[in-house]
Fold this sequence. Notes:
CATH class of the domain at 39-104 and 158-229: Alpha Beta
Number of strands: 9
Structural class: alpha+beta
Strand order of the largest sheet: 5-4-7-8-9
Mean pLDDT: 78
CATH architecture of the domain at 39-104 and 158-229: 3-Layer(bab) Sandwich
Order of helices and strands: HHEEHHEEEEEEE
Radius of gyration: 34 Å
Number of helices: 4
CATH topology of the domain at 39-104 and 158-229: minor pseudopilin epsh fold
Shape: extended
Largest sheet: 5 strands, antiparallel
Amino acid sequence: MTSFPSVKTAWKAKTTSGTGRPRSSQSAFTLVEVVIAVSVVAILTGLAVPAIDSVQRERLAREPVNRLILLAREVRGRAMTEQRPYQIMFDGEGFRASRFFNPYGGRDEARNLRQQIELMDQREELAEASQKRGIAMEASEEVDPAKAQVEDGLRYLEEYEINPGLQVSLKLWNETEWVSMSGSEYRRWIFQPSGMCEPMRFKVEASQSFFEVEFHPLTGDVKTERSWVE
Length: 230
C-alpha cells in the first residue's frame, strides 16, 4: 500500500530550506521597510548638515578673536616685563604684534621690521661661521649693548593672516564708528609698560555669523563679548 505523507510532514517540508534548516521569516527587508529606512536617513542628514555648517561658521569667525586675545595677553606681559611699549598693528591682511618703535609708522612698518629681522639673522649666521673658522670680529664690528637690546626687541614679530572670507572692523577709544580693516586702512593698538592699553573693540563678520569683543584698558583682557551664528 502506498503511503502518503501526513499534513504535518508536508507542512514541515515547506518551511525548511534545501539544507534542512528552517527558513527565517525575517531574512530580508520588504520594499516598504527599505523606503522607510532611506527616508529616516535622509531626514537625519538634512538636520545634521545645517548644524555642521553652523559649527564651521562659528569656528571660522571665532578663530581670529581667540588669536587676538592670546596675542594681547602676550604683548601686555612683554611690555610690563621689559618696561617698553608694545603694539598690535591691524590692516586688511590681518594683525601683527611687535615692540612699539615708530609712532608714525604705517602699513609698511611690519614689512620693514620683517626685513630687519632677516638681516640680523643673516649677520648672526655670518658671525657664527666666522667664529667657527677662527676669525675674530674686528673692533668696528663689536655690537653696542644698547643697540643689542634694541635688536632683541626688533626680533619679536608675531603675525596672523585673516581669512579672505572674513570682514574685520575696529573701534578705538577716539572713534565713534566702526572702521573696516580693508583697503588702505591701518590701525595700531598700544600697550604701555604699566600694562594699560587703549580701549578697543574688535569685530569679525562672516557669512551668517559675527563675533564682537571689547577689551578692558586696565587688564587687556576681554571685558564684554557678543556673538551671533545662524
